[in-house]
Every structure is written in structure tokens, then in C-alpha cells.
Amino acid sequence: MSHTPSQPGEWFPPSGRASDDDADVQLFLFPHAGGTGAMYREWAATMPATVEPRVLHLPGRWGRGDEAPLTRLPLLLARIGEALEAELDGRPYALFGHSFGALLAYRLAVQFEKEGMTAPSVLAVSGWVPGEDILAKQRAVSDMSDDELVAAVKELGLLPTGSVLAEELLRTALPALRADFGAAAQYLDDGAQVSCPVVAFAGRSDPIVVASAMGVWADRTSNFVGVTEYPGDHFYLFDHAISMQLSLQQLLQLPT
To answer: How many CB atoms lie within 10 A of CB 172?
Structure first.
């Protein structure tokens, strides 16, 4: 990998917690399409001292609004991989991704293994599967008009019903949303496996990825931990942060 981010930490800025330097494990968190670090604010606030949370911040949003979003998936993965490698310091680390973030986390785990780098201790995926059904939906969304895209995001339950302010804020995020959906639509599945344990999480009422579909992750590793389902739609994890963290702590063999 030849590229180094111009400002170290801009992709995975430190959480600012005093305990992070002494944490046993680094946990890298990848948000959904168009998402920002705000998605994992509660995770960072409630994470035990044994875990250092590092949230991916992509160009074109929250603190990096003056940068153009990356629209090509191979380039996006290369840049994130370089930034992630720069943050690893010899401690065990885990990857957690939701929706588009799950795609990114999975492909980074594959990429690191192919390059002979230290693999994550755990790959945790949520709300996305490497199957043709979800890929077809991603391609359809990437071709939508602005109004259609806003309506589609509303249907996922990301916005409160009837919130004019929230819709206006969403429209300011459309370039980042469109970039991420466009990048996801470029994904071509090769069936790649990873050697690390994989655990899946799902919302029972997810309209995008049926919870039972998450079982296909068993085909991507010889160490599939299983699927944990929670009440809720595609964004169920907003309501179940602590429970999901406890599950990850147990997998990482940390005190709970």
C-alpha cells in the first residue's frame, strides 16, 4: 500500500477517551451508506475501557465536507485499507459494519488476509449480505432521482415521519448517500472467505435484508458464530447498542 492519508487519523479519528491507550482491543466501526460517526456516538459513550472504538469517517460528510465523496469502490477500499493499516498498533482488533459498512468491513478483512497482514479477531456484520438480491437493490437505489432517494431512505425508518427539518438535512447529505450507494452497486461478489470468526446481527423487521438471509455468512468462513436477531427494522441497532457490545466483548474474550 503506497498511499498514506495526509492527516493521520482523519479516516478513523480517536474517540478522545482517556482509557483508549490502555484498551486491550481496537474496534473499528463502519457506518451505513451516507452515515457519519454520529451513528456510533452511543457505542463510543458506553464502550468499556477494554475496547478502543474507532469510527470510520468518509470524505464528503461530518468534518470532511470540503472533500469530494469517493464513488469508485476499489479506490474507496484501498484508501480505507491504508488508513486502517496505519491505525493498527499490534493489539488485537475487530471490525463491525452495518449495511454498506458491512460490505466495507468484509472486503477489508478479505484484502488484509490476501496481503498477509494480521487478520481481525472478529468480523461482525449487520444488515447486509453478499448476495444478488441485495446487490440488485443497491443498483436500483444508485439510479434513483433525488426525490426517489429521499423517499427510499424514509421507508427504511431513518427519518421521523413528517419531519421537514430532517428531510432538509437528508437532502444536504445526498451527495454522500449517492456516492456510497453507487460504490456499493459496483460490488461484484467472488465468494471470498475469511479465516477469522464471523458473527452476524439482524433486525427481525428489516425490509432490506431478511434476518434469515444473514445465515449465508456461514459460507464465508469456517468459523461462523451465528446470527443474533433483534426487534426492529434496518436500523434496529440504534436501540440495541449495549446488548450488541456485550456480544462482541464475549467473542473477543473480554470481561463483561
So the answer is: 10
